[in-house]
Amino acid sequence: MKNKEQATKKDCAYAAGFFDGEGCVHPRITQCAKPSRYCPNVILSIGQQNPKVLHILRDRINVGYVRTRVVKKQNKPFCMMSYWWITKHEDIIKFIACILPYTIVKHEELMLAMRFCGLHYRR
To answer: Which InterPro entries has this protein been placed in (predicted)?
Structure first.
């Protein structure tokens, strides 16, 4: 069950460092409900073999969900890979607002993702 308390500065800083190293910003254009229109969409994700840290981050920041799946690798028959996905625009904005002051590597990408989310709301 998710913790409903506000994320602390320490939580945000830790999540920012983790996202800077392991996170991905996935901007894309998807078809809207109206067939002739397209909408901007953003997904944030972090991949990790050990899901424990992802569950802790998800519970502290209180956005997204964690999924684990089996993936095949060249030298191994399989391995478990977990992902923390943040897909809802309001959650993406909340997450970016939390970590943005502490990011270094992905700061520009997150700024663009925030602008992309803003476009979604101004249809």
So the answer is: Homing_endonucl
